[in-house]
């Protein structure tokens, strides 16, 4: 499994490379690859006296926090025609200890004979410069590497059961539409469904239950949450749904004691709060017993410039007529 990868360039002024002695290094760079720095040292006339200065040598080192990785190092030369030359590759899967407390392990790649110097000018010198591209790819590795476990797909598997007649043992009729479901799933997710479907209420023996005061789109979204623990999406994003939709879904969540769903709807309503919508949203919070949304709405409303605008709106008069206890809370805040 690839953990990270990155690359950089080392540029050599070709005329100046002749002035180097064998074993002289340059372009010592440290590059950050996430939290693992790597080091490049280039020897324009080689690192070893045995090579008589006939080669460019390159060494790349990787500092790591764990010995449980494999580092694959690549070195390419940019050709005069713009292409990249055949890569030199070195794989380092054994770590050596370092004296760094932050990076106790190191990996090294040696490209002792990266390229013959006699090949530089005809093939790799562009405007007097030789460009070497270096890359590091880091893999998880080692004998103690844990067995890879795929991500859970329980949500998608349960999601495929939403409104599926196969295996269902209860259905709901909502404004003429029929929705299929499973008593055990609904009961496990909602104490209200549990009381209705597995208790002594009449619904426990009814194969089809007719619901009132809820529309099909809202009930479909509620079932989606019950089976997947996520909000449904339309057009690829739940943010494209209207505030009215989330208000309706919040009401359903309150009705069936789905507290997580209620807070998810509250967040969506809060994201669209403005001076024009705050009174209505505050009414939703009070009506559907959501103190978290109510508190944020009151804080927003109590800003003087906001309150002066909202207090003369029709929506505020609606709050005054329908939620007198809420108006009392607002008055107490103003008097403080």
UniProtKB/TrEMBL annotation:
GO biological process, any: protein ubiquitination
Pathway: Protein modification; protein ubiquitination
Residue ranges of every copy of the BTB domain listed in the record: 168-235
Database matches in Pfam families: BACK_BPM_SPOP, BTB
Family that this chain belongs to: Belongs to the Tdpoz family.
Name of protein: BTB domain-containing protein
Provenance organism: Oryza meyeriana var. granulata
